[in-house]
Amino acid sequence: MRIIDLHCYPNTEPWIKCQGPYVEALAKYWNRQWSWKQEDEVVAEFEQAGVDAVLVALDLETTTGTPPCGNEYVKQMQMRHRPRIIQAWGAVDPFKGEIALREARHAIEDLGMLGFHFHPIMGHYAVSDRRLYPLFELINGLKVPVMIDVGTTGMGAGMPGGLGARIYDAHPRAIDELAADFPQLTIIAAHPGWPWTDEMTAVALHKGNVFWEMSGWAPKYFPEQLKVDIRSRLQDKIMFGSDYPSIPYARLFKEWAELGYSAALMEKIFHQNAERIVGL
């Protein structure tokens, strides 16, 4: 069965370093050293897992003061390792104003990236903030999808004041507002959205342009109602993502299998929905 992983980070030195002060918090959250690997090691892990990987760029310069793991970098990494890495999500720091607009256009028109990923908690914004709307108007005009983290995260977790991050920036309400204001924009919520999983389910069901990928969580810890809804009313909305390198692939696949879903449903989750929704 084909497996498309919609949410993979480069896990290389530029990616680790661009996270700045969040590195310590992430190491504590995942209870292991948060350190980089060589590019070939990363690709070997994708190959061993048998996934068609989609990389994710990261630009947090406004909040971290560190250089981004930018669009040129992740796109070049993807191009060096086709077909194992099939595409890449771009990233722009929305607080960079005109620079962000230029970079967004460059990422799609020149680099041919898939769309854009947004990190509300790490970036210190909600996607429904009207100050960001010129950027979303441009992305909407470019006719590419966005992937937006929803729910709490390890970013800043356990640190004094959460390093200034506010988890409510990643509340499903922000995605609901964005989806209503941009009905032609394809929006993919990333992660199960805890502690607002039911609210995210409501948004995904209500908004025809909102979809959902389940990265960053071990499947056995999915809320019980979510496990039921994936089997039924969400089956055409749900996609697979790992949040690599957060959780080992072997564990993810083992626990997805333990949910007991039919082969037909797993075909949708692992590849068919992503093929249909974002053209992979």
Structure description:
The protein is α/β, with parallel strands linked by helices and 280 residues long. The protein has one domain (4-278): TIM Barrel, CATH 3.20.20. The chain is built from 13 helices and eight strands. The chain has an eight-stranded parallel beta sheet. The protein starts with a strand and ends with a helix.
Please render the helix and strand layout as text.
Blueprint: E1 4-8, H1 13-18, H2 22-30, H3 39-49, E2 52-56, H4 61-64, H5 71-80, E3 85-90, H6 98-109, E4 115-118, H7 120-123, H8 133-142, E5 146-149, H9 172-181, E6 187-190, H10 197-206, E7 210-213, H11 224-231, E8 238-239, H12 249-258, H13 263-278
Parallel strand pairs: 1-2, 2-3, 3-4, 4-5, 5-6, 6-7, 7-8
Helix pairs in contact: 6-8, 9-10
Main β-sheet, in a few words?
8 strands, parallel
Output the helix-strand order. Answer: EHHHEHHEHEHHEHEHEHEHH
Mean pLDDT: 94
Shape: globular
Task: Return the CATH topology.
Answer: TIM Barrel
Residues in helix, %? 40-55%
Q: Which stretches of 5+ consecutive residues score pLDDT under 50?
A: none
Structure classification: alpha/beta
CATH hierarchy class name: Alpha Beta
Specify the CATH architecture: Alpha-Beta Barrel
The CATH homologous superfamily name equals Metal-dependent hydrolases
